[in-house]
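Section: Multi-chain targets

For targets with more than one molecule, the full set of components is provided together so that the structure can be written out for the assembly as a whole rather than chain by chain. Components appear in the order listed by the source. The example entry contains two components.
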Amino acid sequence: MAEPMRIRATMAGDVADVKVLMNHPMETGLRKDAKTGQMIPAHFITEVIATVNGTPVLAAEMSGGISKNPYLGFKVKGPKAGDKVAVSWADNKGDKNSVEATIG
Amino acid sequence: MNALRRNVLKGAAGAGAVAVAVAAGLLKPTQAMAAWNKAAFDAKNVGAALNGIGVADPADSKDITIKAPDIAENGAVVPVEVTSDIAGTTSIAILAEKNASPLVSNFNLSGGALGFISTRIKMGQTSLVRAVVKAGGKSYTAAKEVKVTIGGCGG
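Its structure, encoded as tokens over all components, is:
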């Protein structure tokens, strides 16, 4: 997809703190284009999956009710510095993106 | 199974990214999620939305903390952080009760993920922001009112 996702994953004690910023218009489908007067079609991320070392830790369903350029923060107990966290998303038009980071 | 699963697997413009991700073992086809819960997300009231995610009569809980501004200046971007101290939390759903579609998002947790979610939501008007937590086969809830000065659902 367009711009890369940004991710930061750091250990705080025995908990991995992960913050992700996704790039996406998150159109609800309820907005009107000011110039054309036409409704802007719904275009939003529908699912986000996160894994740590390949093990799923988060499976989220989203809607247009999430703000544009979705921010997501979550925490996982058990990983250690050097482990890999991967986050990927898919939207209602079939677009997708993913990013991987090493927990610092 | 359904169009969404096929779309996720095949992809269109994103085919390259998926291929790389699959090759790197990041996103296995089997990890594609089940169909998006349209019934829950299209529901126009809280009851129907909760029904859609398999929840009825969640118990009020003081072990759920919602951190959100008392007054949101911009309804398009309202930071919401939900912490569930209930043991065995398996999911956290966030609702904005007066939005046209109250269910904003549902987060399923596994593999050591804690009962914690931080995100930003849109709110059309002042309303309760509600968190619904599933843990140990039961459901719990808490809510916090967020006043909105400029609605953020567009239009």
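Residues 7-31 of chain B have pLDDT under 50 and may be disordered.
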